[in-house]
C-alpha cells in the first residue's frame, strides 16, 4: 500500500514537472523527449530516482541534453531527491547498435544476449551479413520502441478518427492492404502516435516473426547523419530495407534535409517494391510539407491519407469514461466528466492528462473529486482550452441553423417555429457561457429569469426523449465549439 501511494506521489509530482518543462522547452521538444518519461524506482535511503524511457536511443538523448534540467526540477519539487538516473525501461527491448568497423566488420556485438558473434564467413558481403545475421533478426523481431499500452483495444473511436483507425487496422491485418503507404494526418495530441504503436502491436501478433521498426523523423535524420559521418551507410541502408513494417512519426521534421529525404525516398521505393508496409504520421497533409522535394511528396501521398479531426464532445466523453476504467476505486461524478469533456477540447492528450492530474491530486490529499476541485486544480489547462463563446454568437448560430431572422431571439412572437429555436439558444447560453439566468434573460429581449429556467429544463427533457431535438443540439454544440 505504501509503495502504491509513493507511485501516486511520484506521478503527481511528475505531472507538475512535465507541465513546467513543456512551457520551458516548447511543445515539440517536450512531446518528443520529455512526455515519454515515466517515473520508476525511488530509493529513499540514497535519494535516487530512476526515470524510464522506452528506448536506449531516447534515454541517451535525454541524458545528454536534459539530465541537469530534470535533476534540478525534481530537487525543487521534492528536496529528498538527490540523484536522478535516466534509464531504459526494464520491460522494453534495448536497441542493439550495429557498427561497422574497418573492412565492414562490426566493431561491437549487439546488445541482445541471444545474438550470435560475427565471423569472417558472414561478413564477406556486408549487406547480406547485416540482413541475415542474428543481430539484425533480434533487432526486428520485437516491438522496438513500441509502447505496450497503446493498442487498438485502448484506442477510443468516434466520427473524427474512425477512418484512420480502420485504415490502421487494415495495415496491420494478415491480408495485404490495398494501399501503402498509410499517411496519418492530425493535429498534436489527436491519436496519431497511438495508432502507430497499435499497428506495430497488431502486426506483430499477426506476423510473429516480422521485423518492425518505429522511429521519429528526427531520429531517422540523427541516425542518417551518424551513419554518414562514420562511413556506415551500407549498414544503415540494409537495416531500413530489411524491415517488414516501417513506422515513422512526425514526418514533418524531415523538412529541408535534402540528403535524408533522398535516402527516405529510396527506402520507400525499395520497401514498396518488395510488398512491405509503411506508415507515416504528421501534423499536416503531404502537400503542406514545405521544403520536401516533389518526388518524396508523391510517395507519401500515393497510398491513403487518413485525416484525424479534433475529437468532438461525444468522443472526448467516451475517452474519459474509458480512462476511468483504470481507476476503479475512484469515484468521478458525471458532472465532472461533462465539464472536462466540454472544456478541455484542444487535444486528447491534455484531456487525459487533466483527468490523471485531478485523480492524483484527490488521492494525495484525500479529497473527493468534484467540480470545484477540477476548477481549482486544472486552471492552467482549462484557461488554455477555454474559448469565450458569447450569447450573441449562440443566437447567430441558432438562427442560421433554424433559418429564422436574428430579431426573433428578442421578439415577443410565440409561434412554435420561433419559440423552440429561442429556447434552444437559451439552453446553449446556459451550457456554454458562465452567464446567470437573469443575464441570459436580458439578452433575449429582457425576459424574466424564470422563462430561461423553463427553457433550459424543457430542452433537457426534450433531448432525453426526442432524437431529432438531441441531434439538433449536438450539431449546434459541434459548430459552436469548433
Helix and strand arrangement:
Layout: H1 2-25, H2 27-34, E1 38-43, E2 48-53, H3 56-77, E3 83-88, H4 126-132, H5 134-140, H6 162-172, E4 182-186, H7 192-206, E5 212-216, H8 217-229, H9 233-241, E6 245-249, H10 258-273, E7 277-282, H11 294-300, E8 304-308, H12 313-324, H13 334-343, H14 348-365, H15 371-377, H16 379-385, H17 391-402, H18 416-432, H19 437-443, H20 449-465, H21 467-481
Helix pairs in contact: 1-2, 1-14, 4-9, 6-7, 12-13, 12-14, 17-18, 18-20, 19-20, 20-21
Please provide a written account of the structure.
It is a single chain. The chain is an alpha/beta fold and 482 residues long. It folds into four domains: 2-88, 2-Layer Sandwich (GMP Synthetase, Chain A, domain 3); 162-308, Rossmann fold; 313-385, Helicase, Ruva Protein, domain 3; 391-481, Chromosomal Replication Initiator Protein Dnaa, Chain: A, CATH 1.10.1750.10. It is 54% helix and 9% strand. The chain has 21 helices and eight strands. The strands form two sheets. It has a five-stranded parallel β-sheet, sandwiched between helices. Helix 12 (313-324) packs parallel to helix 14, helix 17 (391-402) runs antiparallel to helix 18 (416-432) and helix 18 packs across helix 20 (449-465). The longest helix is centred in the first third of the chain and has 24 residues, at 2-25. The radius of gyration is 27 Å and the shape is globular. Residues 93-143 have low confidence and may be disordered.
